[in-house]
Design brief:
Chain lengths: 368, 553
């Protein structure tokens, strides 16, 4: 108890002690600032070195080595989103999506509108098979914040989403994205062709035709534009316009086998098409009988039983004499039988109506 | 002064951390040759060993036992030379890769700063002693970036009293130091941990296993350290300056094979907490560190065991979690979560501060989701460690130095028996002196009871305590005890849960030899009485001779 009351001896003047303490505190603060500055600069340089090495390895496909270096970079400078993102890419590329996900989540918590981070999140969601989540992240990326060429990066992100939708055969969503993409100004010819091609895939041939037409108008010697236009017109059932487009492409590239094949098919279709207004009733009737014959052969080839009655009706029709005064109604009666045969043929196993089947093209036109 | 101590200890510890880190970078440049990992720890140990023997003999070791020596046997005295020596020698040894931590030395540096400031201002030794934990808390808050755990550690480990009167000063110092750290280094936790959560209730079983493994690992660590320390102490004094080189060489050879074992190793812990590690590597590192740190410490290098205990815990946790996750991937979290809990487990097992360890891990990682598994594992580890190694590490180290520090148990012994264990309950034989008793009858009553004072009231409720002095000096017209005791009179009393020592205090203050034991809800309701006779009887002193001598008349 007495120790508690003991003075610790030589008490220097409080004022002098306070002054010394103040000087020491200022000195320490300056030293700390100096050391902290050195540390920040050295850490940053070290992180950059690791980042560069990791990025190089990632580009070379060495994902394991890349993860090591990029993790080091990220550990040294956690505030740098570029390092975090590259680490996420490396982890994702090495199949460690479960490691990448929390890292990305913390990054997104910090920067929820970061375009690149959202794009990485979308890629991760694709890898884990969550398409809905992936689409949401792609949209956040598209409308997010980017550095550098914003429009190009946004279009690239959308194009990535488009490719995903093509892969997953999601035509409705694809069409919506393509419409947005088409509306972006300044798209290159290549991009426009890709958009038109995707419109065709999304079963929007009219939009595809419009793009191809503008490209073909701008450069009539553009083989791909003319061929694309032919494809679009073919899907629209505009066989004459399709024929013309293929013809223009053929003039530029006579050895193009695809164009040549399409032209041959369209020549056949043109010779068969009973819907042309300029045809006489007799010619229309003749073409209808020919179509009926082809439909019968097609149904017979399918080999399924149960169509005997239909085949018999077709045979009776073909075996009957040609009326002395053929009318359009006679031709339409024949076509009606042909349509029934065609519908039955479409139910057959393995039946496939391709764009290269003249009968299919004609029947489509008749049906429309 | 708490603010000033917090400020200065914070600034000093930040400088210590930064300097150590920058020196380490210079000693081990990126992609440096493997020979450096052997020679640099050896050289660092030799240099710091020489400095410690020649200039700073009190700066050896961790800093925690030394701080406790200062607090309990040197009236809070830590010299400025020791503070400077600790700073310098630890910077050299830790930067060279010695497998020790920076937190223990920081605590001694902080305590030293507090002690020096207290003495410079001419404070009494009692006040200087009171400032020591204030400095400890400030230093630890900056070293670990854990202000709450720093306060708890100062109270739980350094003072051993969670209700110490210096609590306010400790909190102030810790908060100030923490703010200094944030101003200079920014708001970054010591470890970055992804958000972990309990995946399945089955995981509790794995955390129990982790608690057992962590506890056993802690016991191995502590026993090895204490045994090695005994061995080194037997060596001739002339070898003292190069003894640290043994630790330096050992850690150098380990580091040659696995560089992660060098230094504090927080970078690798951070990586392991992220769940990125091979199980074999973390298991080997746990074993290496359990051997390397005791060797470094026992051979006399300057540095602490906090950091290594966290490292060992993280490796043990990662290895356990890795095995569990490989076996039951659908029912267990990422092994990083186990590494996180493992840190606390080893800390609780080695340092034996379970509460501090839980709060510390929480503050270091800022991950609340893992706190329940953390508490379970910590407690298991703590109990295993206490069973297999009864003496806590710092007390055991102090004993090796011939110093008997107060332990938790000894403090509990000091608190002694409770009043409720010793008092005489109110019954037909023991009851208050009725308030209507006249003074002459009262004197007779006291004579019969062989005491000088007694509570006054009815069977249940009392109005005060009367003693012979009051009776002798009382007004002549007083007819009864009620006339002698004024209404609302203050009288000494105790509660049944008070320590017996307090009853003695109250007797001294009230000038009585018997005090009533009253109900906590109704102070006037008497439950029993406690007197010198009962207290002496509780301590085994026969009362007959004593009272026959002391009783008046």
């Amino acid at each position: 108890m007495t120790a508690g009351a003991t003075q610790t001896g030589k008490a220097s003047r409080p004022g002098a002690t306070a002054a010394i303490l103040a000087v020491v505190a200022v000195g320490l603060a300056v030293a700390d600032r100096f050391l902290a500055k050195i540390e920040a600069s050295e850490t940053s340089a070290s992180a950059k070195r690791s980042y560069d090495k990791g990025s190089r390895l990632l580009e070379q496909g060495n994902t394991t080595g890349a993860v090591d270096f990029l993790r080091e970079a990220h550990g040294l400078d956690r505030q740098n989103p570029q390092y975090s993102l590259r680490l996420v890419s490396a982890l994702s590329a090495s199949g460690r999506t479960s490691d990448a996900a929390p890292l990305l989540q913390s990054l997104l918590q910090r920067e929820p509108n970061d375009g690149e981070a959202n794009l990485e999140a979308a890629r991760l969601a694709v890898k884990s098979g969550n398409l809905t989540e992936a689409q949401a992240y792609y949209h956040r990326a598209i409308y997010g914040e980017w550095q550098g060429n914003v429009n190009r990066q946004r279009n690239d992100a959308r194009m990535e989403l488009v490719n995903l939708l093509v892969e997953k055969n999601r035509k409705q969503e694809l069409l919506a994205e393509l419409i947005e993409l088409e509306a972006q100004p300044g798209a290159s010819t290549g991009t426009q062709k890709r958009i038109a091609e995707l419109f065709l895939f999304a079963e929007a041939p009219a939009r595809a035709a419009a793009i191809y037409r503008s490209l073909a108008d701008a450069d009539p010697r553009d083989i791909a534009a003319n061929e694309g236009l032919g494809n679009a017109e073919l899907q629209l059932g505009q066989y004459r316009a399709a024929h013309d487009a293929y013809q223009r492409a053929f003039m530029q590239a006579p050895n193009n086998t695809s164009v040549r094949a399409h032209l041959q098919v369209l020549n056949t279709v043109t010779g068969l098409d009973p819907t042309l207004r300029t045809l006489t009733s007799a010619e229309k009737y003749r073409r209808s009988v020919r179509i009926l014959q082809m439909a019968r052969e097609s149904l017979e080839r399918c080999g399924e039983v149960g169509h005997e009655e239909l085949l018999k009706v077709a045979d009776d029709q073909m075996g009957s004499a040609i009326p002395p005064h053929v009318t359009n109604e006679d031709a339409e009666g024949v076509l009606a039988i042909a349509e029934k045969l065609w519908q039955a043929e479409q139910q057959c196993d393995g039946a496939k109506a391709t764009d290269m089947n003249p009968l299919a093209l004609v029947m489509r036109k008749v049906a429309s | 002064l708490s603010l000033v101590i917090g400020l200065l200890s914070g600034l000093t510890v930040v400088a210590f951390i930064l300097l150590t880190g920058r020196l380490a970078v210079r000693m081990y440049p990126p992609e440096s040759a493997a020979w450096r990992r052997v020679l640099i720890p050896l050289s660092g140990a030799l240099v710091s060993g020489y400095l410690l023997v020649r200039y700073f003999p009190n700066a050896r070791g961790s800093g925690i036992p030394q701080t406790k020596f200062a607090l309990f046997i040197r009236n809070g005295y830590i010299s400025l030379r020791t503070v400077l020596g600790k700073f310098l020698c630890c910077s050299i040894s830790l930067a060279s890769g010695i497998a020790l931590g920076r937190e223990g030395p920081s605590v001694q540096i902080g305590a030293g700063i507090a002690s020096v400031i207290g003495r410079r201002f001419g404070l009494s030794t009692a006040h200087v002693k009171a400032l020591v934990p204030v400095g400890c808390a400030g230093a630890l808050a900056a070293a670990f970036n854990t202000p709450i755990a720093a306060v708890l550690f100062a109270l739980e480990e350094i003072l051993g009293d969670m209700h110490a009167p210096v609590l306010g000063s400790v909190v102030l110092s810790s908060a100030t130091s923490w703010m200094v750290l944030h101003l200079i280094l920014g708001d970054q936790p010591l470890f970055h941990v992804p958000a972990y959560e309990l995946v399945h209730p089955l995981e509790f079983g794995v955390y129990v296993i982790l608690g057992v493994v962590g506890g056993l690992g802690s016991v191995c660590f502590v026993k090895l350290l204490l045994q090695l320390r005994i061995w080194f102490k037997k060596l001739p004094e002339s070898t003292l300056w190069w003894q640290p080189a043994v630790g330096g060489l050992a850690v150098g050879l380990f580091g040659w094979a696995m560089p992660q074992v060098l230094g504090v190793g927080y970078d690798y812990v951070d990586r392991v907490l992220g769940g990125d590690f091979p199980i074999r590597t973390v298991a080997i590192l746990a074993v290496m560190k359990i051997i390397a740190t005791p060797l470094c410490y026992s051979s006399g290098n300057a540095g602490g065991i906090f950091g290594p205990s966290l490292f060992i815990g993280a490796m043990i946790g990662a290895a356990t979690g890795g095995v569990a996750h490989a076996a039951l991937p659908a029912f267990t979290a990422n092994p990083g979560a186990y590494a996180l809990v493992g840190m606390g487990t080893a800390f609780a097992g080695i340092v034996r501060t379970p509460l501090t360890s839980v709060i510390m891990i929480f503050e270091m990682t800022r991950d609340y989701a893992i706190i329940v598994p953390l508490m379970i594992s910590n407690l298991i580890s703590f109990f295993i460690s206490r069973q297999l190694q009864p003496d806590p590490i710092y007390e055991a180290l102090a004993l090796q130095e011939g110093v008997h520090l107060p332990t938790g148990e000894s403090r509990a012994e000091l608190a002694g028996d409770r009043v409720g264990d010793v008092m005489v309950h109110i019954d037909d034989e023991t009851f208050p002196l009725p308030a209507g008793t006249d003074p002459a009858a009262a004197r007779k009553f006291l004579d019969t009871r062989e005491c000088n004072s007694w509570p006054v009231g009815d069977r249940q409720f009392i109005i005060g305590v009367i003693n012979r002095r009051d009776l002798d000096a009382g007004r002549p017209e007083a007819q009864t005890m009620r006339d002698l005791i004024p209404p609302d009179a203050h009288f000494p009393f105790v509660y049944a849960d008070h320590p017996v020592s307090l009853a003695l205090e109250r007797m001294r203050e009230g000038g009585v030899d018997v005090v009533p034991v009253v109900n906590r809800a109704i102070i006037s309701e008497i439950e029993g009485v406690i007197g010198l006779r009962e207290i002496l009887a509780a301590y085994g002193v026969p009362d007959s001779a004593f009272f026959s001598r002391s009783m008046p008349g």
